[in-house]
Amino acid sequence: MPQKTFSGNIFIFHAFDVGDEINLEAVKSLQLVTPQPLSRYFKNYHLPLSVQLPDPQSSIHCTSVKVHAFGVVTLRYQIPFNTTLEELRAKINDIDAAYSQQSIRDAESLFERIQGTIKQPRFFHLRTSYVIIQANPMAEVTDMVSLKKECGSTIASLLRFETETLSEYQKDEIIETSMGYYRNDLIIIDTDAAFMYDDEYEELLDLFEFANMQHLELQYFDRVLDRQLSIAYERKVQAPPFKAYLPFVNAMSNDPVGELGQLKVDISVITERLENSIKLAGEVYYSELYSLLTKKLDLPNWKDSINRKLSIIQGISNIYQHKMEAIREDILSMSVIVLIFLELLLGLMNLTKH
Question: What H or E segment, with its residue span, contains residue 292?
Answer without folding.
Answer: helix 284-296
